[in-house]
Specification:
CATH architecture: 2-Layer Sandwich
Radius of gyration: 14 Å
Number of strands: 8
Strand content: 25-35%
CATH class: Alpha Beta
Shape: globular
CATH topology: 60s Ribosomal Protein L30, Chain: A
Distance between the termini: 14 Å
Order of helices and strands: EEEEEHEHEE
């Protein structure tokens, strides 16, 4: 059985998908880009500000799914410019306990939805 998760504190999907799905004791989030759910627009500011917004969006979705960032077992990060790798790490260290950080993949891609330069998805324990 699966349960669909939606939360008003995270951006509405840009297509035919949901913010997250709970199945078999896990929460699977859709990739989140740095959209402010209040405005529906990409956040202004530097790259780190954008990664922080993505974490806010993921946190809201996980909370709605009765989980949280401490229960994440895997992150997948997509960025359009590998020169931002260190900034991604800095933001991850601000949001997560480094000693219990989950597995992570980080991939450089040509482009992302809506012109975003970062997208992050995760799998968490429910």
């Amino acid at each position: 059985m699966k349960k669909i998760i939606t939360d008003a504190h995270a951006p509405n999907p840009m297509g035919s998908y949901n913010q997250a799905t709970v199945a078999n004791g896990f929460v699977f989030t859709a990739g989140q880009v740095p959209i402010d759910p209040d405005t529906g627009q990409m956040v202004d500011g530097g790259f780190k500000d954008k990664v922080h917004q993505v974490f806010k969006n993921l946190s809201a979705i996980l909370e709605r799914a009765e989980s949280d960032l401490s229960k994440v077992v895997k992150f997948t990060v997509f960025i359009t410019d590998m020169s931002h790798y260190a900034e991604v790490n800095e933001v991850f260290n601000e949001w997560l306990d480094e000693s219990s950080a989950p597995a992570r993949s980080l991939v450089s891609v040509k482009e992302l939805p809506g012109g975003a330069d970062v997208e992050i998805e995760c799998i968490a324990l429910h």
